[in-house]
Design a protein that fits this description.
single chain, 4-stranded antiparallel sheet, 33 strands, mainly beta
């Protein structure tokens, strides 16, 4: 089914394909809400952070809330204080329409500038909320962050409604996905190339549906050879479970290879909605929102073999025991342990943070923390690790104010 997360007044719609079921496990880590967002009528600090956070070199956290501020979302920072509290600052509040609406995550470049997308707004195209989305940059000038709109999507062949975080190559060029548009209207992979006069958008691949896949909701990942890897939530064949794809440059052309078509049957995942992560050995990890042994989603690994690429299902989610609906993707630490979140379920009923550890080829799941509403609800973005191995993320809903505005949390395994 489609779960529709919407915010009244702005019409922000974020669709994810999920199913339901139940079981039980217990928490094994401490959790702390670093910051809880206020709700209406006082939501100037933001509302519904659903794209995770990133660290700067000083240990401050940065992220986005897709609502609040002036009503159309904010970019925020959290700074740790000597007393253990964290202070939030709104770096930029979107005004909707031409400016952009509903930011979906940020990433740093080498100079400390922030880049991100807005799902809607920009003033171009016929998508809802004043446009089909934007790519923006925030640059710090003194103590003030200045925002520039680098590109406005039209929803046509250039793509539209970018739902995911961006990545940058070593030259500072930007890469991402759009969930609609492209040559066939089913989504695209795009690049923004930096030129002497500004930025030029180029569609690298347009998804055609069917065996090719459609509707990418997650961002992209580079391998060491500069190839791009990603997922689509739909298409891939009769099962319509999505795909795992690779884009490689051959001369001036870009060639797509479908590495896997998710079926949702025989234990395979379905609804491939997560970003992908490489470990040091070149294995590729991710999660699915559906499919698996219990039809509630999976954690998967793809490994290269002499004959090609092999999928291993490391975990099939059970429902109330460990949660379900995992689109956050997988975070890998230095020793190869895996971490992620589920949006639904778990013992607390409102999602979970989990770990998977490998011992002699057997993967064991531990529920690090289970959310129950007042401590947050619905973790959706990827987790990020600090140098001590603590995990940081966001919940799109819930929080101690009881108004469902979401929070930023730390889990200490």
């Amino acid at each position: 089914m489609f779960l529709q997360m919407s915010r009244s007044g702005n019409g922000m719609a974020f669709a994810i394909l999920f199913l339901l079921a139940f079981n039980t496990l217990s928490s094994a880590a401490d959790e702390e809400a670093l910051y809880t967002f206020r709700s209406a009528p006082d939501c100037l600090d933001g509302r519904s952070p659903n794209s995770g956070v990133v660290f700067d070199n000083s240990g401050n956290l940065y992220g986005t809330a897709n609502a609040g501020g002036a009503g159309f979302g904010v970019v925020f920072s959290l700074t740790p204080q000597p007393n253990g509290n964290w202070t939030e600052d709104v770096l930029y509040a979107f005004s909707g329409f031409d400016d952009g609406d509903a930011p979906s995550g940020v990433v740093f470049d080498k100079l400390g500038n922030l880049f991100g997308t807005t799902v809607y707004g920009g003033g171009a195209g016929t998508c809802t909320n004043g446009g089909c989305g934007t790519v923006f940059e925030l640059t710090k000038v003194g103590s003030v962050w200045m925002k520039s709109t680098l590109y406005r999507f039209s929803g046509g062949k250039d793509g539209g409604v970018p739902l995911a975080n961006l990545i940058l190559d070593s030259h500072g060029n930007i890469y991402g996905t759009t969930s609609i548009g492209g040559a066939y209207g089913l989504g695209s992979v795009f690049a923004l190339i930096r030129t002497q006069t500004g930025w030029t958008e180029k569609v690298i691949h347009s998804f055609a549906g069917g065996n090719d896949g459609s509707t990418p909701m997650a961002g992209l990942t580079f391998d060491n050879n500069g190839h791009l890897f990603g997922t689509t939530t739909m298409g891939g064949g009769p099962s319509n479970g999505g795909t795992l794809f690779m884009l490689a440059r051959t001369g001036t052309a870009v060639r797509e290879t479908i590495l896997h078509r998710f079926t949702g049957s025989d234990g395979d995942g379905s609804v491939a909605c997560s970003p992908l992560t490489f470990d040091e050995k070149g294995n590729l990890y991710g999660s699915t929102g559906g499919g698996g042994a219990n039809f509630l989603g999976t954690v998967f690994r793809f490994s290269r073999t002499k004959s090609g690429i092999r999928e291993t299902i490391l975990l099939s989610f059970s429902g109330s025991g460990d949660g379900f609906g995992s689109c956050s993707g997988i975070t890998v630490n230095a020793t190869g342990d895996l971490y992620g979140t589920t949006f639904f379920g778990g013992p607390g009923g409102d999602g979970s943070a989990f770990a998977l550890k490998n011992s002699g080829g057997t993967w064991t799941e531990t529920i690090l923390y289970s959310f129950s509403g007042l401590d947050g609800s619905g973790p959706l973005g990827s987790l990020v690790l600090d140098s001590a191995g603590n995990l940081y993320g966001t919940t799109a809903l819930g929080g101690s104010n009881g108004m469902g505005a979401g929070n930023v949390f730390e889990v200490m395994p």
